[in-house]
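Deliverable D4.2, example record:
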Amino acid sequence: MSPASPPSPAGRPLLRIVLADDERMVRTALRVILEAEPDLEVVGEAASGAEAVPLVRSLAPDVVLMDVRMPEIDGIRATEQILATMAEPPRIVVVTTFENDAYVYGALRAGAAGFLLKRADPDELIGAVRLVARGDSLLFPAAVRALAVAHTADGPAPAAPAWAARLTDREADVLRLMATGLSNHELSERLGVGPQTVKTHVAAVLAKTGSRDRTQAVIAAYEGGFLMKKS
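Output generated by the structure prediction step:
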């Protein structure tokens, strides 16, 4: 999160947001919704991925809402470039019209924290921004599974990933539960362990799967066939 973010009148840290979408009306609608909240501030707008990358680097926002399909540089390449070139990159949420979208899948694999449908209502949009800003991933379990399966269905059955053998039984359970969209708090309640223990298990899963965040870990598990073995 941006170190200079002052507190908002609501008592929450002020979250700084960049909007990247090639449709001005969409950006305007998003700005109106977000800036109605006292803890959210839109600090910049970009009409393409080519504009978004330098803008995000210069403004260092907390969250970027990134349209998937844009001219010049699409949301996938823009996400890749931002995450590869910033020491403390923002959390990126890709925005799309359809769930079953190769662009969304590519962006999630590139490191986006999750995706949001353009038909989402204002409460979902606001909740998504706050969720990713605090470090969680915006997982839609059924949609993530559908995306991953769709991109592996035509090929041979995947070989068991090498990292699967390195997971402890508890870490394997944590990964399976992560794939259902449970938060750390919900994992703690389900497993009957403390929050710090859950954080330790999640960190181990991310390290062993070579994932930037929970979304990438879940995708890796589906792609490797790990999550097909046990529901």
